[in-house]
Request: fold
Amino acid sequence: MENLLIAIVVLLAILCCIAFGILSSASGTQRSIVELRTQLWSIRENQKEFTEIQFEALVDFMESYKCELQECNISLSDIKAVMNVIYKYKLPDKEEREFLDRLKVDNQLSNCRDKS
Reply:
């Protein structure tokens, strides 16, 4: 009977040690879970900030791109206006220059005759 009581006490002591080990493991696991949750929350917050920064950078880029496009449109309209003027008042080609030179000479001769 005494041996049975000693065996029961030893088994209870072993069970207590196992229970203590399980509890300490569980509390360590719980701490790890809490730390992991904190780290995930921190990562999520950092990601939100990073995403906001990226979005702001994208908005800035798009605004500068919009300004550049507007400047290009203004430049294109200026080029078109100049081309319209050049087309309307084009420089004379070789034949037209020769004709204008003869016309000028003829006008000078006519002026000289009229004065005489």
